[in-house]
Design goal:
- The protein is an alpha/beta fold and 408 residues long.
- It folds into 2 domains: 264 residues, Aspartate Aminotransferase, domain 2 (3-Layer(aba) Sandwich), CATH 3.40.640; 134 residues, Alpha-Beta Complex (Aspartate Aminotransferase, domain 1), CATH 3.90.1150.10.
- 35% of the residues lie in helices and 14% in strands.
- The chain has a 7-stranded mixed sheet with strand order 1-7-6-5-4-2-3, sandwiched between helices. It has a 6-stranded mixed sheet with strand order 10-11-12-9-8-13, with helices on one face.
- It is globular and about 75 Å long.
- The two termini are 35 Å apart.
- Its EC number is 4.4.1.2.
């Protein structure tokens, strides 16, 4: 399945080409055009001695098994295709897929804790459940929160990981990944790349050793599949495979099939949605109803903005845009982070990380920009129904906006 088997690894290919062909190079030789979906949970074997030797090999090394699969909790051919493709897109040696993004993060923390290291340095804001998993110590971890400039000072001898999300959820704050990786020294840097995807940035090329995705979002792209994936070096991937086998957080084969299919259109979807998002940012930045717009320098399809009025009125007022959690789908979604995605984070921590009560987060889809703007602008003019509007600043206040990125 790997490109090396077909003499393709030495030929550099554009990301769009890799997105279409990675994980599929062997199909023509199999007489197939579409990747097969293998739903088997178990596989027959008439040589128990050989099977025992292969299982011992996995238990010892965590390497993928040569030959046919044994059991779905250990490996699956359809999921393996998705893993190979995602690793190629991220420029990593390997990738390991899980049932969700949170299962993936959990496996990373367990893998590092298995080496006796439990201290994590993390940069806020993070996705609310990631924040909670670290801060609540549910896995026995201890976390030190800091900004990017304070990472070096926060490191300890028992630090196992530095975690950052860039662009961050939900403020879209960006970190200099290369500088951050340098600050980490020998401690692995994990970058949650869910918002950017490898279309906009490849953290491995900037020094990150672990890249995390909630594959539920842009990688799947259609709001109909849940999964998580970690891109990393092969050594760490072997530990992750062993943890996945032991804990059972496996990705279902149908999800692997849908995620592989989603990768084939990932560059087209991200670039089209990003173009629409940039135009919406331009309009929001001059709208007197908007206090501030957040938009990353690298672009993307995620927008965050703070309103002068009641954000709940906006949520209640949209008709074409869907008020819902999650992101990265072909349709546009909007949500109020302080009420939903980051509700689990303590109020003081939310606000200190820039997640204000007036902040709205929008995942721009593939609809026409004029239709989206019409729906958004009428929602922004919805009749006041909440209590926040009374505290709005005087009309003389002007919106402060992030600059529109060049070339996007």
């Amino acid at each position: 399945m790997d490109a090396m088997d077909h003499g393709l690894s030495a030929i550099p290919r554009a990301l769009a080409t890799e997105a279409v062909h990675a994980g599929r190079e062997d199909l023509a030789g199999l007489g197939l055009h579409a990747p097969p979906l293998d739903l088997s949970t178990t596989y027959p074997s008439y040589d128990a001695r050989a099977e025992a030797a292969r299982i011992d090999e996995f238990a010892t090394t965590g390497a993928r098994l040569d030959g046919p699969p044994v059991y779905a909790r250990l490996d699956n051919p359809t999921v393996a295709r998705f893993e190979d493709a995602l690793a190629r897109l991220e420029g990593a040696e390997a990738a390991v897929a899980f049932a969700s993004g949170m299962a993936a993060l959990t496996a990373v923390l367990l893998a590092r804790a298995s080496q006796g290291l439990r201290h994590v340095v993390a940069v806020r804001p993070l996705y609310g459940c990631s924040d909670h998993l670290l801060d609540a110590g549910l896995l026995g971890t201890e976390v030190t929160w800091t900004d990017p400039a304070g990472v070096t000072d926060a490191l300890r001898p028992d630090t196992c990981l530095v975690v950052v999300e860039s662009p961050a959820n939900p403020t879209l704050a960006e970190a200099d990944i290369r500088a951050l990786a340098h600050s980490c020294g020998s401690v692995p840097l994990l970058v949650d790349n869910t918002f950017a995807t490898p279309v906009l940035q490849r953290p491995v090329e900037q020094g990150a050793r672990i890249v995390l995705h909630s594959a539920t979002k842009y990688l799947g792209g259609h709001g109909d599949v849940m999964g998580g994936v970690v891109a990393c070096d092969e050594e760490f991937a072997r530990t992750l495979r062993q943890i996945r086998f032991a804990t059972g957080g496996v990705l279902h084969p149908l999800a692997g099939y849908l995620l592989l299919r989603g990768l084939s259109t990932l560059p087209v979807r991200v670039r089209a949605a990003s173009s629409t998002a940039a135009e919406l940012v331009r309009r929001l930045a001059t709208d007197p109803r908007i206090a501030r717009v957040h938009y990353p320098r690298i672009g993307g399809a995620m927008i965050a903005f703070e309103v002068y009025g009641d954000p709940h009125d906006v949520i209640a007022g949209v008709r074409l845009i869907t008020p819902a959690v999650s992101l990265g789908s072909v349709d546009t979604l909007i949500q109020h982070p302080a009420s939903i995605s980051h509700r689990i984070v303590a109020e003081g921590d939310r606000r200190s990380a820039g997640v204000s009560d007036r902040l709205l987060r929008m995942s721009v889809g593939l609809e026409d920009v004029e239709d989206l703007w019409r729906d958004l602008t009428q929602a922004l003019s919805a009749p006041p129904a909440g209590s926040l509007r009374a505290a709005a600043p005087a009309a003389s206040g002007r919106p402060v906006a992030m600059p529109r990125p060049a070339g996007r």
